[in-house]
Amino acid sequence: MSDSSPFPFIYLASQSPRRAQLLDQLGVPHRLLLATPDEDAEALETVQPGESPRDYVQRVTALKLDAAVARHARRSLAGGPILCADTTVALDLDILGKPQDADDARRMLARLAGRTHSVFTAIALQNGSQRHAALSVSDVRFAPLSPAAIDAYIAGGEPFGKAGAYGVQGAAAAFIEHMSGSYSGIMGLPMFETAQLLDRAGIARGYACKTS
Ligand SMILES: Cc1cn([C@H]2C[C@H](O)[C@@H](COP(=O)(O)OP(=O)(O)OP(=O)(O)O)O2)c(=O)[nH]c1=O
Which of 24, 137, 126, 39 shows the shortest CA–CA distance to 79? Predict the structure, then answer.
């Protein structure tokens, strides 16, 4: 483990409220480092031809961190480690991003119904000149879903802004027959891997239950 971080907080470069909530759960003081509208965050999330979901999610996370490091420098902010993440749902080798609209959400949920998919969440932390990264992989099996169940779920608004058009932490929990891996990873920030990364970088956590 490296020396303790001199910083009393980290920057979370993510607009996802779930990630902030999970970081709170780990007892890590943080400030948001968000992109401005002129930074085209969506442009980072373009899949390259033939790219596997595993490669994609790690590449996008590294790009998000590059952008966040540049943003931090541009704004002349006080020092502090910077954390980024990306979550991707993959069915076979197809990447399911966030749905564009209700029809897109309906198509994604109909594909996921009655099948097992994978959820990849990559995380990356910049601490001074050092970069640490980790990957969480989970498998989720959905029960068969009727068109009416899918429509009712979409009407509730939950699919929007979420990879694969669902949130494990919401009403979609009722769709899930089985899962293996990391619940928090599926939700957007794998707590075990994040704690390990912070520990490796010497960053204090409020509830510092060390795993090694
Ligand atoms: C599968 C799944 C995803 N999600 C969310 C987590 C992420 O917010 C989102 C995936 O999109 P991301 O592109 O990973 O993250 P984001 O655009 O919300 O935030 P940022 O890029 O600023 O960090 O899907 C859930 O909340 N629950 C779930 O069960």
Answer: 126
| Nearest residue to 30 (alpha-carbon basis) of 42, 21, 43 | 21
ipTM associated with this complex:
0.98
| CA nearest ligand 1 atom 15, residue | 86
- pLDDT by residue (tens digit) across 181-194? 999 999 999 999 99
Beta bridge partners of 89: 96, 119
Residue 208 CA to ligand 1 center (angstroms) comes to 26
User: What class is the 10-200 domain?
Assistant: alpha beta
* Residue ranges per structural domain of the chain: 10-200
Ligand 1 in reach of 187 Cβ (< 6 A): yes
Atom from ligand 1 closest to the CA of residue 85: 23
Question: What pTM was computed for the model?
Answer: 0.94
